[in-house]
Amino acid sequence: MTEDYIVEIKGNEALLDKFIDSILQDTCKADKEYPHPYILPSGEKFLNNSVVEYFINKKPFIAEKAIQFCEKLRKLDESGIAGYNYTLELWIEEHVEKVYFNKETTWEDTLTLKPEIDISAVNQEYLTFMCYVAITLIKYGASFEVVVANEYFDMVKKLGSNEVDELKKHGSKKLPKTLTEYKDQNISCIANDVFATIKIKVKEENEESYRAILEFICKLLESDFPKSYSIEFSSKIKNTLPIKGLPKPGVHYLFANAVQYPALHALMVEYSNLALKKWEWYNNMQDENCAVPSTFAVFALGLEDPVYFDLVIKYMQTVDEEHQSIQEKFTPAFVEKSGINKQSFPVFISCILSMQEHKSFKIFAEQFSTIENLELLLACKRNFINYISEETKSEWSEEDLKEMPDYIWKYVLYSIWGPEEKYPALIKKSKADLKPLYQEILVIN
């Protein structure tokens, strides 16, 4: 296939200058087709990374101009910062990391200043731009890119700049203090958009305290605050949700406390809808406990009232099934609280489908031992494609649409009754009026 865009920088400098001017004047567009090259009003197309590479290597390097240019790109590029941040990271590697640091690679990379480096001679424009790139990665990049951002901050500090300390104290200063700070006689809240932290302290436990906290967080999330963040919460009362094995970071206590006030449930729903973003995380919860923002609010509401069942389904269809498993702890607590019935059944199935292989719990099999509930499950099997999220189905080929439902159905059965080899004995010992239902449900195509 012939490319209809230019890639080569050498020999095309004059055209690239036109692209830069067009980007800065907001007259440049991005192609809708991958890899989304930039398009001049006159029709010429240039690969985005080549345009960025040309611009960022122009002399002299002025951080303010580079930041202005990158801010234009962030709004222009079809892929957001993912369309060009690799080029920026390569530039930082070549102009800062390799120039000033030695890298030791064992089980993780360690950067140490080269002994001959005079940090007073370091180009401060580079460091200011590095801080900008780090902030951009935290705010708009994938959640894992916070690691790269922190590496940049570490390099900037080692090179003698106090910019990182200023960012820790004041954030980027791009958000007004009315959004990032709140204090009254009951609570204090402070947020830092650079390090994606929300710190909350409760002095007096009452409904108004938690109302103010939820309103503070919701307004913050409506702004240009990072979508992956940590909530550090301190209070005298530490209620917990009735979910066995659920980790207990501060955000758990926050929503377990707040859910005690029915008048605040609508605000918790508002927070959940603002916070729930696929591939975003609470930054202070790692590994097996990683959780998409909104997790504890949704769990609290889901155990509180059936009116919030649709919110739970939305949550379960949004979580990253490959990397998050904390919802497995919610399912048995939900079944214990709500049982299996016509209203709760769709929630149960959404919980099972939120993971690649949900653990089997005894309470599940106990619930599916009546005619009514087995009929619910059988109806689900017959129309199983309707229980699979539209987003998931949109990623399937026509062949997948034929084969995947039966494949996934096996995992539903496993989550209820365990391994397939148990099914014959289950059918054999079942009551006469249940046997036909078990037989049809447990038949695997």
What does this molecule look like?
With 445 residues, the chain is an alpha+beta fold. Among the domains are: 13-170; 360-445, no CATH class. Helices cover 50% and strands 8% of the residues. It has 21 helices and 9 strands. The chain has helices spanning 13-24, 48-56, 63-76, 85-100, 124-140, 146-158, 163-170, 177-180, 207-221, 250-258, 265-275, 295-302, 309-318, 330-338, 345-353, 362-367, 371-382, 390-394, 398-417, 423-429, 435-442, and strands at 29-30, 38-39, 45-46, 101-105, 109-113, 181-183, 187-192, 197-202, 230-234. The strands form 3 sheets. The protein has a 4-stranded mixed sheet with strand order 6-7-8-9, sandwiched between helices. A 3-stranded antiparallel sheet has the order 1-2-3. Helix 20 (423-429) runs antiparallel to helix 21. It is globular. The model has no long low-confidence stretch (mean pLDDT 94). It holds the Pfam family DUF6138.
Tally of separate helices: 21
The helix content, as a percent range, equals: 40-55%
| Overall 3D shape | globular
Q: Report the major sheet.
A: 4 strands, mixed
Class inferred from helices and paired strands: alpha+beta
Pfam family, one: DUF6138
Features:
445 residues, alpha+beta, 21 helices, four-stranded mixed beta sheet, single chain, three-stranded antiparallel beta sheet, globular
Would you spell out the secondary-structure blueprint of this structure?
Layout: H1 13-24, E1 29-30, E2 38-39, E3 45-46, H2 48-56, H3 63-76, H4 85-100, E4 101-105, E5 109-113, H5 124-140, H6 146-158, H7 163-170, H8 177-180, E6 181-183, E7 187-192, E8 197-202, H9 207-221, E9 230-234, H10 250-258, H11 265-275, H12 295-302, H13 309-318, H14 330-338, H15 345-353, H16 362-367, H17 371-382, H18 390-394, H19 398-417, H20 423-429, H21 435-442
Parallel strand pairs: 8-9
Antiparallel strand pairs: 1-2, 2-3, 4-5, 6-7, 7-8
Pfam families: DUF6138
InterPro entries: DUF6138 (IPR046136)
